[in-house]
Amino acid sequence: MKKIDQEEFVKLYKTLPPRLQSALFSEEIGNNVEKICRRYEINDKFSDILNAISQTLLGLLPIEDFEKVLIRDVGINMSQSKEIFREITRFVFFPIRDDLAEVYGTGSESEKILEKTEEISSVSEDAYREPL
Amino acid sequence: MRSNSKNIALISLVLSFVIILTPQVVNGFAFDLASNQLDAISEYAGPIAALTIGSLVFFAIGQALLLVSSFLLQGIISATPTLLTVTSGEASAFIRLNWGFTAGLVNMILIIAFIVIAFSVILGSTKIQLKKTLPMLIVVALLVNFTLLFVGAGIDITNFLYNSIANQFLSGNGGNILYNAISPLFSFSTGQLAWTMGLIAATAASLLVPYLNVAVQLAWVFGLKAAIVSASQFLTYGAIMWGMAGLFFLYFLVFLIRIFVIQILAVIAPLAFFCLIFDDTKKYWNQWLSALLQWLFVGVIFIFLMYFGLAMAPTVMSVTESFQNVFEVKPSWFGGGMIDGFLKIIPHIALLAYFIVIMAITKSFVPTAVNAVIDQAKGFAKIASPYTGAIATGTMKGIRAREEERSKDIKEREARAKIERPGFVSRAYTSAKKGTSWAIRRAHNIAGTSVSEERKKDVKSELEDLKKKHGDDYEDFIQSDMGLTQLRGLRTANLVRGTAALQFLAGGGADALTKLPPDVLADLIEGIHRSGDSKTIKNVVKHIPDFADVSAPQKEIDDEKEKEEKDRDKTKIKKAEEKLNLATKIQSAMMSEVKKVDGSIEELKEELKTLDKDGDEYKEKKKEIEEAVINAINKISVQSLKSSDVENLSSSTVKNGKFLEAIIENKSIEFIRAFENRKDVSSIVKDLSNTINTMDVEELKRLNPTLYGQIKKTPAGQALFEEFHDKIKREETSS
Known about the structure:
The complex is a heterodimer.
Chain A: H1 6-13, H2 18-24, H3 27-39, H4 46-57, H5 66-74, H6 78-93, H7 97-104, H8 109-116
Helix pairs in contact in A: 3-6, 4-5, 5-6, 7-8
Chain B: H1 2-21, H2 32-83, H3 93-123, H4 130-143, H5 147-171, H6 177-206, H7 212-222, H8 224-267, H9 269-274, H10 282-326, H11 336-364, H12 368-393, H13 396-416, H14 424-447, H15 451-470, H16 474-479, H17 484-488, H18 495-506, H19 509-513, H20 518-530, H21 534-541, H22 551-562, H23 570-597, H24 600-609, H25 616-640, H26 651-655, H27 657-666, H28 669-673, H29 681-693, H30 697-703, H31 705-713, H32 715-720, H33 722-734
């Protein structure tokens, strides 16, 4: 997957709504991705997942294509990709859904995906523990 | 025709007689001649009388000063042992009360320290090295209540040495040897003074009697030789007395300050002992101990050397007697009497020289504070000398003329704002200002306020005026009447205005500050630094930390000076010198902050002192210090910078590698984000990325764990510092 270089980042960053700009500088995203990677034992994929998130936040990767990128470019197997995508959508994209909708357009697929997503404020270690 | 001519001649003759012989009212007076003569002779007698009177006044003041200073010095020498008593019942209330307070305070801190150690044992903390700290704590707890005894023992030892010499002052050759040494100076004057004063009184009385006044003034002119001899003697003896008085007063100050300093050191002794416990505070103990020993022994050294000087006076006197035989044939014009007279002053000059030598010797191994006293006294001496010279020559008119000339010169120089060492008037002015500010401080103390508070209020009010008047149009301010023209000549004369101006310009960051020429900025920084306003200095320097770099302008100067003289760009050299001067002033103003940030600088400076100035090691060490200082200034600047300041940083600052290093070591990614509105954001980010790539992952983790985490975990960190982000991940994977 192509990585975003400095100049491209600076150029696109200036066009974003303020909340998305702040999100790009938020450590919370990295913390959530780290926890997801730990749970699915894909620590080596951390940087690639973070890069994919950056692309989405910068308006380069619509949310509907995110899962495909996880499988094709990041190398996550199909059995895990759905869950990982769901979690990233919930924890990273959902809190900034309005701003993402602004970037990808009202009524876009990205917006529809986000509308269907449940709100969970943060990833907890036992979020996916089997129900008793 | 012929009869007509006769008639005309006859009429003219008659008319002439009529005119000549007609009675007229006139205002003639028999003493007019005396008055005219007096006026004429005064032209010559006046300067001679002025010389005599001036030299007499100079001598009389010197004599009075010498009497007072020798009285003060003898007094302080005799009183020192009593005043320095700290242990017995005679100890001053100041020591007893304050030592009790500090000892109580330290006892309380010791209890807290015990509790902290107890908790650290319970909680298993390894921060406090128990093995080392606890025994020392117990020892200090025991010793702290005996600190006054220890200091008292030190004082007693030095007092013993001191007294054994001080007693000699009183027993030497039947009386006080201090007075014995200077009494010949007074004995010279007894007859001479009375004779000269009588002469002056007689002259004054004669001025009332016509013609006698002319005769007396004529006598002054004829007595030119005697007047010159007399004035020379008065001036020479007077100069020696002034010199002696100055030195005695200086010694008096050193002895007086010694008493107060030792008393204060005795009072804070418990705190100093407490500092022994921890490694971090041990340096304060060392400082205290070194100060105590220096101040204790400085008195002994002074009195020891003084005793030798004073005891030597009679010996030198006998040596000069042999000089008199050298002049078997004496010059006839002034006569042998004058040669003899001057030979008599040699012992006094020798004594004066010896005291100056004592001062020079002691200066090299006495506490810094003594040096400060000596330097201050030197400043006063320099200020006083032209005035005393003027009194001696009796030409106050001359001094006024010189004052006007100097004042004009100062104004011109200030207008040009050249970087020069201040001249006499400027020094006198500065000293007068210091005196005034001292008086103001005392007045504020009485009124329950402080000068700095009042000054802050004034600066605030001036700053508000500037903001109201110019908003954020800094160029408008610079061009205004109160702008550059005023600031250029300001120096330390009106610090309120200077401080307000710099605070105002600092609001506009580097762009606004660099509107001031380097020489003006340097003068303002120096003045504000002297006033102790470190906050304003920091607030200014944080926008222009690269201006503190001495190496760049120094290199420019060196490069130009390497060229042939004809090829040198003098304007470039001048500009570089101004920048160098500014850098030096900034470094000097920031030095106390710099030392707080990097404690090793002080050690490096000490090491530098031990090296040969011409050696390579010296140059390397100097360079190391310069780099450490500039790194520390960049660090301080970066730490003081707010995100809102970023926009106003100069392009040279953001290109400065040291500044970028300081950002990486001290700031978070949020601060880097603040560069977003700058046009050069891309190049700044690139430079920051290049700088960070030169570091190890562990190094960044240690120096700035926040930025380390942010590069690792934020999308922006990954994109902006891609290479370093990958480096972190690689290291984590491999570990």
